[in-house]
Amino acid sequence: MITALSIHNFALIEKLAIDFSGGFSIITGETGAGKSILLGALGLVLGKRADLGSLKNKDEKCVIEAQFSIANYQLQTFFEVNDLDYEDQTIIRREILPSGKSRAFVNDTPVNLQELQQLGDLLIDIHSQHQTQELSEDDFQFRIIDAMAQNKDLIAKYTTLLKSYKKDQSSLSELQSTLQNSIKEQDYHSFLLEELLAANLKPDEQQTLESTYEQLSNVESIREQLEKSLAAANEEQFGVSANLREIKNALQKIAGFSSDYQSLSERLNSVAIEFDDIASELHRMGERLVQDPQELDRVNQKLQAIYHLQKKHNVATVAELLAIQNDLDQKAVSLTTLENDIAGLQQRMGESEQKLDAFANQIHNNRIAAIPDLTGQWGEILAHLGMPNVRFQIDIKPVSNYLAHGKDELQFLFSANKGSDFGLLKKVASGGELSRIMLATKSILAQYAKLPTIIFDEIDTGVSGEIADKMGEIMRGMSKQMQVFAITHLPQIAAKGDDHFKVFKTSDDAQTQTRLKRLDREQRVMEIAQMLSGSALSDSAINHAKALLD
What we know:
By secondary structure, this protein is of the alpha/beta class. It has helices at 35-45, 76-81, 113-123, 138-149, 152-199, 205-217, 219-234, 240-254, 259-288, 293-313, 318-384, 425-428, 431-445, 465-478, 491-494, 521-533, 539-549, and strands spanning 2-10, 13-19, 24-28, 62-69, 89-96, 102-106, 109-111, 124-127, 391-403, 406-415, 423-424, 453-457, 483-487, 499-507, 512-518. The strands form three sheets. The chain has a six-stranded antiparallel sheet, covered by helices on one side. Strands 8-12-13-3-14-15 form a six-stranded mixed sheet.
């Protein structure tokens, strides 16, 4: 529950600090006194978005701090999951800087707005007038029936599994789309792959083939030049070999006269040996040289196939063609992998569907079982609130789709009077009836939802007299299980509170400020008397106020 609230530099509040206790607390004040400012400040602590318009003094930061006693509400798991320091007396602080930036802290640890909102949902339920319309919304109706059916854990498991299932569903859709596109391209890719495989390409093959082609294409010219070279080398009198032998013999004769001559002789000897080897190689090449038109044709066809593939795939080398071939081969493998992935995902989704169906069936059965208790409690409470003939009918229809709350569609049907037909709650209930139904609903939920605090912002709109008194009794009954605040204009409700706070404005020549104070017994008497009779207090109003308080 909230035990303290301090506000600095927010709207019309310059500085305010107040302590709260458990039980039933009343907040009253004239219209426009600033009750909505208090709720706005509390909303910021609970994670609502802020703007610079919230600052009273635009040059100073706004600080709102609330202390909560949470020892009895099993919130340790939330703190662990969000890596926050748990304290039985937890302090939430919200700061709005003059720059417009906003900061939030839980026990002095920075948090983002999402974390703050999640924690706020576990701490306080602020029920404003427009939220009565939530009774007509599916989400709220499911919250009611599921709280009665004690479906919280089942819904959590179902929701977690459904999130995973929908993620798989999205992945399956993407894989199937990819597979369809791949199948469309498969024939063309297969044709390209077969064409490349038929070419039987090898790395560096192109250079070898081009060299072979040049040789086979120029056999006669090559033979002519080889024979010419051999003749020049081996001609008996004037050939290079004969001249080298003659020079070698001459140098050998003078080698003994000088080391220089010896060196030249040795070098020439090496040249002669190398030249003899060259001449022998020329002879062997000439003997191997064969004119082979068939081989020339084969090499030419292979080269033309390579050139065609290079042009087709817009590449310049066999290595690039082999890379394309490997890629096409991998695509064929990928297609098989895609099919396997789809099959595996479908199997997993089938298993998830079985689990989801089991959860949904159990949730549905629990809801059906809870309907008589819920409609019975509604009827009993609303009879005390001036609706003795009210009847409810809750229709739960199983569907095949996996919805956020299970596999049910829900309708709350309502009849306020004897003999009248059932109609949709949102269509046939008046504003005053909806207010009373909402109060009855909150009273029922208080027994099941372990929420620390609830704040009713003028839930009594549209009622008065004995009905208001009964509404006050119900809220006071709720306060035995949780902390309850009621912002009210009705003296019958105000008199039921354990504590009474008044919101009021003060003005001087410089500014107007909103203030909040706790009323003592005498001040409560005067406040309730004023609510009864207006600004002109009468003895009867004061006596009536005392009677209400007693």
